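Subject: design request, 68 residues
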């Protein structure tokens, strides 16, 4: 999975401001991947638990964008 370079840099800056810890580009990439997986799990479980109605049958799947 690819995460845009500018998003990785934003995550690094936010992490440093929040935790006063400097992380590498690779660490930021790995954290970003974990966040994306977490969002997919959370949104995926909500859809499975949601009862199917006539209005939800024709719905498009969720689009997940990563913006930090």
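Subject: RE: design request

Done. Sequence follows.
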């Amino acid at each position: 999975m690819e995460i845009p370079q500018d998003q990785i840099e934003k995550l690094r800056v936010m992490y440093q401001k929040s935790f006063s810890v400097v992380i590498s580009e690779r660490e930021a990439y790995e954290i970003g991947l974990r966040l994306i997986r977490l969002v997919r799990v959370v949104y995926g479980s909500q859809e499975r638990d949601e009862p199917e109605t006539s209005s939800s049958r024709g719905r498009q799947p969720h689009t997940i964008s990563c913006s930090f």
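Residues 7 and 68 are 6 Å apart (CA to CA).
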